Amino acid sequence: MELKLTPMQAPTEPILIVEDDKDLSELIRIQLSDLEIKVDQSYNGTEAFNMASDNNYAMIILDVMLPGMDGFEICRKIRSKDSKTPILMLTAKAEEIDKIMGLEFGADDYLTKPFSIRELTARVKALLRRSQTSDDPQNAAQESIEFGDLYIYPNKRMISLGDEQLELTSKEFDLLLLFANNPGRAYSRQQLLDVVWGYQYNGYSHTVNSHINRLRSKIEKDPSNPKYIQTVWGIGYRFTELEEI
Description:
The chain is an alpha/beta fold and about 240 residues long.
């Protein structure tokens, strides 16, 4: 029997399902409703983007192939103004490029069709737990990790550079936190994939490069001459140590 989210875990906002296969959308809706999660549905990309722009959602489950506006464009536009709402993309089995592009446009995770409802439930719960940890006001007192004028607040999943609070996607934050907890350690791209993205992303090393570039553009004063995230030629990347700042 599938375990339900407890009332404390169930999000107050609905989840938006964007899927033009109405049978699949309804199957997902039934499963999430059984978990006591409210659901909105859209079968058209343009409509879905408008709904995401006008409403707060705990999470968005987003198909790639949609009428009106495809999932990549929706993801890109959402991420241009909202770095926090979890996005789970649904991709076609034969299209490996869908997985890569989804991650690089800012999706937090993906599922390849056909998928099991049990796997969908596991991914939804994991993304919701991460999001709820970020929003929990009890985490406000968590001590920060400090590197010069860069402050990282692990439990709040927030960072600031000097007096400016920065917006990171979930994976950008996970990547930065791994580096900051292990200053000086060099990681290969594959090691970063294994730890931050998981084994299912084996071989997508260019995804790491894209996230590193975006992260540098946010935390580095001069991304072409980075102070915090340094390239280790022939290996991958390392985070600076305090005495180097």
